[in-house]
Amino acid sequence: MNSASFKRGAAGLVGLMLAAFCMIGRGAAIAETSVEIDAPYHLQPGDVVEISVWKEQDLKREALVRPDGGLSFPLAGDLQVAGLTVAQVRQELEQRLVKFIPDVTVSVAMQQINGNQVFVVGRVNRPGAYKFERPLDVMQALSLAGGATEFAGVDNIRILRRGRDGRQQSLEFAYSEVARGRRLEQNIVLQSGDTVVVP
Length: 199
Hints:
- By secondary structure, the chain is an alpha+beta fold.
- Helix content is 30%, strand content 28%.
- It is elongated.
- The termini are far apart.
- Mean pLDDT is 83; it is low at 3-37.
């Protein structure tokens, strides 16, 4: 093999290796995204769950998550469940009920998802509150609201988010950039209570 052929072969091998590394990197990014999307649902005020205790007919009922994030259940008393998953609520109930019912088995099932909602306001065709069961990003929320109106300032959209400490932060969103596939990190997954403001 002459020198030119060797160089072409080496360049081709390097190219194949770079392509393989890129594919692995993309695969890792996809896997990371899927983990985030498949994250379990966390209860919010307004949600309704059905709670039942095996072999205890009197301990089966629907329970509403109150505005303060709590719910009540016989023998277990009052529980703070906002922000918990269904599995975590089941574990908490079993820990409380085992004092009264040995080998207790509790089932908790979602009945109504009412608390998980975002608000889209301003110059959109259908402003209002939108409930969601799966992760929802800014572009999807704007689509639910019917898109922006003709004179909307789509590159000055703000997402208002209030933290647990009560403080509110404002996040930028430039529709034109995201629509062209740029600065996609702006297209965040919304949290319950977020407000998308379209000026």
